[in-house]
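Input record (one chain):
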Amino acid sequence: MAGHSKWANIQHRKGRQDDKRGRIWTRITREIIVAARAGGADVNMNPRLRLAIEKAKAANMPADNIKRNVDKATGNLDGVTYEEVRYEGYGIGGAAIIVDCMTDNRVRTVADVRHAFSKYGGNMGTEGSVAFQFKHVGQFLFAPGVSEDKVMEVALEAGAEDVITHEDGSIEVLSAPPDFEAVKAALDGAGLQAEMAEVTMRAENTVELAGDDAARMQKLLDVLEDLDDVQEVYHNAELN
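The corresponding structure, as predicted from the sequence alone:
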């Protein structure tokens, strides 16, 4: 990755997520329902549900809402059935994009995603067309100024796969998805609070975009993220 702009890109992404905070509960609700339906209501046996509930609490979702969504998923209440679906495509400058959705109407969702790609300068791809450019990982990002030695010692001891220090001074820790919780617990226990900690699709290589191309790419990403059925949008563009 081009480390010089890593921190700026992450901060920019966080800022845009904060602007859309009103939609966060909807996405978390779907994640809770799908996770509970797939792995059951016992958080001790269902790490995906445990992470979804952590996200819900961090977003200040009331405990009653969380319980109601778990009950819906496990048959204690009537609810909508969501399925997970992934779409892939290309953005400005050939940048790779993955769009993860949860939907109760696949026909509607694919039409919305395809329309967004075509209207805003992208191209919808086939399954597997860009996914190979990403790796499913646990990712932690620390602000410039955090002790590299301490992060490295704690993270690697807890089972992290890699610790990367970028040119801008930010530190990135990567783990296998099953090890995410153990690494997070160790970092938190050592007083090392990551600015971002998530299980994500991390781009193996990036495409740098600037000026009008960066603006067009951001518009495409915004439109995709604003679609009702979209949960996450991953891409490999560095916007300068």
